[in-house]
From TrEMBL:
GO MF term (any one): GTPase activity
Family in the record: Belongs to the SIMIBI class G3E GTPase family. ArgK/MeaB subfamily.
Record flagged with keyword Chloroplast: no
Keyword Kinase: yes
Keywords associated with the record: Chaperone, GTP-binding, Hydrolase, Kinase, Nucleotide-binding, Transferase
Superkingdom in the source lineage: Bacteria
Protein name: LAO/AO transport system kinase
InterPro entries membership: GTPase/Isobutyryl-CoA_mutase (IPR052040), GTPase_ArgK (IPR005129), P-loop_NTPase (IPR027417)
Origin species: Scopulibacillus darangshiensis
Length: 321
């Protein structure tokens, strides 16, 4: 077992932080480490929280941490929102708001994405969440801005995906266009202290009628005012109902299997691409085929030459266990 994995198993928080740095920096022992911690995962419930910048995701996460800590649950947070107060692009007020959690050993907050990672933000985040799961957090919150494909990809790891909307903002249309509606398990109308809650509720319901007809789970809509700490228990009830639904219907297994498959593909894709890109950039691969003069022929030649050896091409330790 990787020594960091052993320390993570003993709930050594410094080891967890170090391990996430390994993941972010594509450390050469990263795959060994992830392989070691994999059997320790599966205990946490992953909650993705997505929504436009300013929707109140960080405020909500902050309140949820308090709420869950009162239930004695261990909470891990991965913040992918570059503007989130956890990530350093922060406004002072938010930092102060968050800071009390830093002294609580039952809370671990890590911001992702400010560092560039070769593996891409979504992969790095998944791996960080895995590490937190192995550590033994009961609930892992992933905050992300719902804007691009990588955010959508991040949400695919969540057991429960919550989409945060605000009354009077019109962002429900954006959410619909971006395909986020389909992945939502739960809608949070945050800033329910503002006018237009009923209207937004109606809009969400109409859009749900359009897309969700065949699904057995209809995403509930909960109203929250994060700044006043209102609606948190309703929100948690909705999350636990969804969790129970997943367990009852076996969808959780299905989800994990689906995830497993996607992850294998991602790892294979990434490992092959990195190796091949290195060779191509150093001229090892493509210079041999340069005479072919067009990129298609050259690419084809490279693929044809590489394919037979692919089964031996993945970094050590990946295919022996
Ligand atoms: N009126 C109102 N404002 C809120 C509420 N929740 C958050 N805000 C404010 O919305 C702004 C953006 O919040 P933040 O949590 O940083 O949003 P994020 O970008 O989605 O993480 C901040 O000024 C918050 O104080 C709420 O329930 N009601
Ligand atoms: Mg934020």
């Amino acid at each position: 077992m990787h020594p960091l994995a052993e320390r993570i198993a003993k709930q050594d928080i410094r080891a967890l932080a170090r391990a996430i740095t390994y993941v972010e920096s594509d450390h050469e022992e990263k795959l060994d480490l992830l392989q070691s911690i994999y059997p320790m995962t599966g205990g946490a419930h992953y909650i993705g929280i997505t929504g436009a910048p300013g929707a109140g995701k960080s405020s909500l996460v902050n309140r949820l941490i308090d709420f869950l800590r009162k239930k004695d649950l261990l909470v891990g947070v991965a913040a992918v929102d570059p503007t989130s107060p956890f990530s350093g692009g922060a406004i002072l007020g938010d930092r102060v708001r968050m800071s009390r959690h830093f002294t609580d050993p039952g809370v671990f907050i890590r911001s992702m994405g400010t560092r560039g990672s070769l593996g891409g933000l979504s992969r790095t985040t998944k791996e960080a969440v895995r590490l937190m799961d192995a550590f033994g957090f009961d609930v892992i919150l992933v905050e992300t801005v719902g804007v691009g494909q990588s955010e959508l990809d991040i949400m695919k790891i969540a057991d429960t995906t919550a989409v945060v909307l605000n009354p009077g903002s019109g962002d429900v249309v954006q959410v619909f266009k971006a395909g986020i509606m389909e992945i939502a398990d739960l809608f949070i109308i945050n800033k329910a202290d503002l006018p237009g809650v009923g209207k937004l509720n109606g809009q969400i319901n109409s859009l749900l009628d359009l897309i969700k007809q065949s699904k057995p789970w209809r995403p509930p809509i909960v109203r929250v005012t994060a700044t006043k700490n209102e609606g948190l228990s309703e929100l948690w009830d909705a999350v636990t109902s969804h969790r129970d639904f997943l367990r009852r219907t076996g969808d959780k297994e299905q989800l994990r299997l689906e995830r497993f498959k996607n992850e294998v593909l991602e790892i294979v894709h990434y490992e092959l691409m990195t190796r091949l890109s290195e060779q191509i950039e150093s001229g090892e691969e493509w210079s041999r085929d340069r005479a072919a003069a067009d990129p298609y022929t050259t690419a084809k030649a490279i693929i044809e030459r590489r394919l037979p050896s692919m089964k031996n091409g993945v970094k050590g330790g990946m295919n022996d266990g």
